[in-house]
Write a structure and sequence with these properties.
heterotrimer, A alpha/beta (386), B mainly alpha (318), C mainly alpha (302), A: 386 residues, Rossmann fold, seven-stranded mixed sheet, 11 strands, globular, C: 302 residues, mainly alpha, MetI-like fold, 68% helix, elongated, binds iron/sulfur cluster
Chain lengths: 386, 318, 302
């Protein structure tokens, strides 16, 4: 099933995003067909209250999100906590019902009658969860947790167990030692390796990693990140990597998508986004990252105020309450991502970058940073040493 | 908070309706023709026809239920097969007698248990704590009606200090809580009844007080030279609302669960009424008494919840 | 019901895990390990075992026929002739009746809890896992039964259906279904939201398979602890029903029924009259203590 591609250990991050995995029998749509297409995806959670417990409002957790995941790439998704990243991950996995929108997996729609069979989708797309405390069943030995998926898909007990052990080896855990252990006997990093093995047990093509390394210590984080990059090549995977940690996203991603209050505000190749961020929110995020470094700590807070409430998001551009460039226009008209953009394009949903919108700063947007951000991410440094 | 109270009240309505459905269904749980369950054995053809029409046994069950509910809402719970008196009247008289002993029992239990629980929490792990813990385990393990029998054996049979059973010569009407000649009849039932809530209230007092005592700010207060008495007063004041709520719930339990104790002491309350109804297979009385007791229980819980929210609005509930 | 706070058996916190032998590692092995090192629970467990053995081997142990009456030897005191614990109001041997009585008491203590555990537990797990309308319907119905103090509910159902052991069993089972259901529902709702259940769904596990593999194992502990505490309540309620004439029918020896029939004799032979209550107290106390021990032993956060 899996192409054992042992290519030279060069950097997997290709400058071009049109990375096409070499011949994979599971590939249906061909190289040009995106692995995953997300169109106008929405998820609204009802808020109940009042004496009769009626629905009084809704949380617009994910509100009209569209993007594509190219085969073989790693798409990073960043944003503050509460911006809808985790909801998006669960929507992509079809773990919660979508309110509106379309999900197309390798040319076939997900969750509709004529689309891809749920059974096939469940094998092809897998997820790695963040919380290492609740992501493994505390009552099962970890090898049983890994074997559960294949068992559900009809593999015999013995086969599934062998597979689980083989995968434990692949994620760097000695099978005989760790297989029969219970989650509470494992460290955070080991648990996360088991989580990865569990996802791989389905031989997926797409893996969604939701804050997969966020709970780990820095050194462990680097090891797991390297493991992920290695596995990606080894198993010919496509990643959607969700994180609030800009350094980690920079290190692992080919392209980056920035979310704010349930919407996509900017998307593009990683180097461009990090070197020349467009959207004021992305700039603020990147600035705040720099400010973590004590030498460059700034006096003023990079983003003022708390993120607005997703129950009643601001009108017009959702960022206008915190944006230093906001104009009257921004309060009334919602900026859109330009249509027809290719995955390799760097685009943003901000009036300042839209000629027709009429923002006074169009074309004279101040440069994002005085000095270009050439400094490599900290985990990349650690990883390089490792 | 107002929203919460409204929602809580709104929530009690379907529960109460469910309770009425359950009580209505009791007649159908009883083996045999429900009609015969509602009639005295020597009923004349006339009465049979009357009851039949009144209950509408020829109509579909939902209609029967609505009719029954309508009558119950206007205070007509039917007639006792045994005495031919209105069930509502019998329940009302009995209810008063049950309230006397359950109120006294709850007050007694609360007073004893609160003091013991506080002492146990203060001397955490000490002798007092162990005694209190044992008493509370005993309280929930003991068959309380048996405890009543033991009390009778000791105080009525051997020592002859107190009467064993009944409510005194005057019965319900002659009973006065201000006269020893009446009160002495209530002492053993109240003692017996208090046994279970003592254990439960003590346990919640102990945990509430020791929780306050273990908090950091108590250490700070101590370090700042606050006296032990003041520390304890502070802890007690914080623990009190929660414990009072437990006491309220226990009152509801006692009211509804008095059947065994009242049977032992032949105390003429709702419990004895139920026991009589069971012995005589007097379903209307059984049905009416249970309906009233269950509704009281629902109301007590509701009142406790609302009061607790009013006293301590920080408690946030679904 | 039982929440007595005795001190937790000596510190087996997460840090102490490393010192355990390598074969003590699954949750249940941990629980077993802690129980084996808890003398109080072991003692009361032994008492329960003793009562159970007495019930099973009653025909072999009991010195006399428990239903054999004797007009001459009525209400004899403890130690009279060869009546070790005296005789009852019909001259039957108290020792034999107490031994035989363990049968119905245990049966009525355990069976309703077991049935309620199965029915209520299943309902609760379904309500908790499926959620939504199903949850609402199931839990609202349970709430109605919660509107009755337990003894009142038992008396209502038994009273309407009439006495007898089967009816008593049914009514007690109904009494315990709502609390079991609620415990199971709460536990399931908590577990359902955890990532490993999502992960199982993400691998395509069906509802049934997920419940069996991932939910039950995690819901079992709290439900089981709660159920163990209910055994003592069930014994007390069952004996109460018998006492009211709503349980086991005479002449079957039953502790509650014995208390009831001996009640008339308290002026003549008070000690003997109190004996069945002692038997009930010991049994129910033992179950309470064991339940407490179980709860503490199972309170391992893994
Ligand atoms: S659209 Fe306006 S408010 Fe929004 S980010 Fe751009 S400049 Fe700021």
């Amino acid at each position: 099933m899996v192409t054992k591609e042992k290519s030279a250990d060069t950097k997997a991050r290709a400058p071009s995003v049109e990375v096409v995995p070499p011949g994979d029998p599971r590939d249906r749509g061909g190289p040009a067909q995106p692995m995953f297409m997300v169109r106008d995806l929405k998820k609204h959670f009802p808020v109940r209250g009042g004496a009769l417990n009626r629905t009084v409002a809704k949380v617009l957790a994910v509100d009209g999100v569209s993007f594509e995941v190219v085969k073989g790439e790693t798409l990073g998704i960043v944003g503050e906590s509460g911006c809808g990243k985790s909801t998006l991950a669960r929507l992509l996995m079809h773990l919660i019902d979508i309110t509106d929108g379309e999900l197309i997996f390798d040319g076939e729609e997900v969750g509709v009658r004529n689309g891809i069979a749920m059974r096939d989708f469940r094998k092809a797309a897998q997820m790695v969860f963040q919380d290492s405390y609740s992501s493994l069943n505390p009552r099962l030995p970890v090898e049983d947790s890994i074997a559960y998926g294949p068992r559900v898909h009809g593999m015999s007990k013995k086969e599934a167990k062998n597979l689980a052990r083989e995968l434990l080896g692949k994620v760097g855990l000695r099978p005989e030692v760790f297989g029969p252990r219970y989650p509470h006997e494992l460290s955070g990093g080991q648990k996360q390796r088991v989580n990865i093995a569990r996802a791989l047990a389905m031989s997926p093509r797409l893996v969604i990693l939701d804050e997969a390394v966020s709970a780990l210590d820095k050194s462990v984080e680097a090891q797991v990140l390297n493991l992920l990059r290695h596995l990606k090549r080894h198993f010919n995977l496509t990643y959607v990597f969700i994180s609030h940690d800009l350094n980690v996203v920079q290190y692992i991603s080919d392209r980056v998508l920035v979310m704010y209050l349930g919407e996509v505000v900017e998307i593009g190749p990683v180097d461009e986004i990090y070197a020349k961020p467009k959207h004021p929110y992305t700039r603020a995020l990147l600035k705040s990252r720099l400010s973590m470094d004590p030498d460059e700590r700034m006096d003023e807070a990079p983003i003022t105020g708390d993120p607005p409430n997703p129950i009643n998001p601001p009108s017009g551009c959702r960022f206008h309450t915190r944006c230093q460039f906001a104009e009257t226009l921004c309060k009334t008209v919602a900026p859109k991502l330009p249509e027809g953009a290719r995955p390799s394009d760097h685009v943003t949903a901000c009036h300042m970058y839209n000629q027709t919108a009429g923002h006074s700063l169009f074309g004279k947007v101040p440069p994002a940073f005085e000095t270009p951000v050439a400094e490599p991410a900290s985990s990349a440094r650690v990883a390089a040493k490792a | 908070m107002l929203n919460y109270i409204l929602r809580r009240v709104a929530y009690a309505i379907p529960i109460s309706l469910g309770v009425t459905i359950f009580c209505f269904a009791l007649v159908y749980l009883a083996p045999g023709d429900p009609l015969t369950r509602l009639l005295p054995d020597d009923a004349t053809a006339e009465t049979i026809a009357l009851i039949k029409a009144a209950y509408g046994f020829d109509k579909p069950i939902p209609i029967q239920y609505l009719n029954w509910l309508g009558r119950a809402l206007t205070g007509d719970l039917g007639q006792s097969i045994q005495t031919n008196r209105a069930v509502a009247d019998e329940v009302l008289i009995a209810l008063g007698n049950t309230i006397i002993i359950s109120t006294a029992a709850v007050i007694l239990a609360f007073t004893l248990a609160f003091v013991m629980g506080t002492v146990a929490a203060y001397y955490n792990g000490g002798v007092a704590d162990r005694v209190a813990t044992s008493v509370s385990v005993l309280g929930v393990s003991i068959p309380n009606y048996w405890f009543g029998i033991v009390l009778i054996i000791i105080f009525a049979v051997n020592l002859r200090w107190l009467p064993a059973t009944g409510m005194g010569p005057g019965g319900s009407e002659g009973f006065s809580i201000w006269e020893w000649s009446s009160v002495k009849f209530a002492i053993l039932p109240v003692l017996t009844m208090a046994m279970v809530p003592i254990g439960i209230i003590m346990r919640s007092t102990r945990s509430a007080v020791s929780e306050v005592l273990s908090q950091d700010f108590v250490q700070t207060l101590r370090a700042k030279g606050m006296g032990e008495a003041a520390v304890l007063r502070h802890a007690v004041r914080n623990a009190l609302p929660g414990v009072l709520a437990v006491m309220g719930l226990q009152f509801g339990y006692l009211m509804g669960g008095s059947i065994l104790i009242e049977t032992i002491f032949t105390w003429p309350g709702t419990g004895s009424l139920l026991n009589q109804a069971i012995l005589n297979r007097d379903i209307p009385v059984l049905q009416g008494t249970i309906l009233v007791l269950a509704l009281i229980f629902v109301m007590t819980n509701l009142a406790v919840d609302i009061l607790q929210t009013a006293v301590d609005p920080r408690i946030k509930r679904g | 019901m039982s929440n007595a706070t005795t001190s937790v058996p000596s510190g087996l916190d997460a840090g102490g895990l490393d010192q355990l032998s390598p074969d003590v590692r699954s949750y249940w092995q941990m629980v077993g390990f802690r129980l084996r090192h808890d003398p109080v629970t072991l003692f009361f467990g032994a008492v329960i075992l003793f009562v159970i053995l007495a019930a099973i081997f009653a025909p072999l142990i009991a010195p006399k026929d428990p239903t054999l009456t004797s007009m001459i030897d009525r209400l004899k005191p403890i130690g009279y002739k060869d009546y070790l614990l005296g005789t009852d109001e019909l001259g039957r041997d108290m020792t034999s009746r107490l031994i035989w009585g363990a049968r119905s008491s245990l049966l009525m203590g355990l069976m309703p809890v077991v049935f309620a555990l199965l029915i209520g537990g299943a309902l609760g797990v379904i309500a908790g896992y499926v959620g939504g309308k199903t949850n609402m319907v199931i839990m609202r119905i349970m709430d109605v039964f919660y509107a009755f103090p337990s003894i009142l509910l038992a008396v209502a159902i038994s009273g309407a259906m009439g006495g007898g052991m089967l009816n008593g069993l049914i009514s007690l089972t109904i009494v315990f279904i709502p609390p079991m259901c609620r415990i199971a529902e709460t536990a399931t709702t908590q577990v359902r939201g955890l990532d490993f259940v999502e992960a199982a769904r993400a691998t395509g596990g069906g509802t049934g398979s997920i419940i069996v593999t991932h939910i039950l194992g995690n819901v079992l502990a709290p439900v089981f602890v709660y159920a163990s505490g209910m055994v003592s309540v069930s014994i007390l309620l069952a004996s109460g029903l018998s006492f009211l004439g709503l349980g086991v029918a005479p002449p079957t020896p039953d502790w509650g029924l014995m208390l009831s029939t001996l009640r008339q004799a308290i002026y003549m032979n008070p000690i003997v009259c109190a004996l069945p209550g002692v038997a009930i107290l010991i049994t129910s106390l033992s179950f309470n203590m064991v339940s407490d021990g179980l709860r503490q032993a199972m309170d391992v956060k893994l």
